[in-house]
Every structure is written in C-alpha cells, then in structure tokens.
Amino acid sequence: MTPTELMETYLNEVGGAGRLDLIETLAQEDMIDEANRAFGGPEGRAGLLAHVKGFRRAIGDVRYEIGPIAAGKCAAGEHAGADEVMAAWRFSGRHVGDWLGRTASGGPVSGDVISIFTLRDGLIAHYRLWLCAVFGEGEAREAVVFDSRDALRAAGKL
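Structure for Ester cyclase, as requested:
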C-alpha cells in the first residue's frame, strides 16, 4: 500500500466507515498519536483506536470530504528520511458527545483538518493533527483550533 493509499484507507474506511479493525493493519504497535497522548489516552495503537472511537462518539452523522493528499520523504528533524503523508480533509455532522472541552449540544459541527502521518515500514509510526472545529451556526458559532503539537507542549509531554 502506498502512503497515499494508507491515508485514504484511514480516512475513508477507519474514520468514515468505522472499520476500527483496520487500525491493526495500518499502524505500528508502538505508534504515537499526538492528539490522544495530549489528552492522556493510551499509548501505541490502542491510542489511535481510542482517538477514532472518541471522535466517532462525539460527532454523529459524520460526513467526510477528503482534499489533497501529499506524500514524500521527511527532509529534516527526528523523522529525517522517513516516508510522510499529509491530507487536508473536512468533516461535518452533529455534536452528540462531549469533545474538545465542549458539552454535547446536538447542534451542527464541522471542521477543517490536517492529518500528518510519519511511516515506518509502511505503517503509521507517528500521527500529528491540526484542526479548526466550528460548533453551532449563525451568531452562536464558536471556533476551536487544536494543534496536537501545541497541546503536547502545554501538557509538558513534548
């Protein structure tokens, strides 16, 4: 599976269709999910599973629109030389579970997301996430920006 196909499978099948069983075939056992780690969730592949379950529990009737996906080699830093893949995507649905510090409202929620995977042996080894979620509509709209790297720094875990 190419890095682009891996990202497409994760977004469409795992996130969109709820095929949580595929996580075992897409991610390293010891992978790091920055968003899950920032919130104190389990480590490794179990953390990615918790991340996806939490999102799907909080966002009902979720719909995905996948934008550009780009893949290449990391040029510098701790992952220099590793395969990386990035996707810009959008979601929309109903806010049916507590999420990002907001109590479930039943109202609309949407977001723009950037997912970045660093791969090892063709599987997800590291997951960084950035999103801007918009809760509500009209005058009552509220935007929340989340960057997993910033959240780890704030929690003293980076």
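Residues 44-58 form the longest helix (15 residues).
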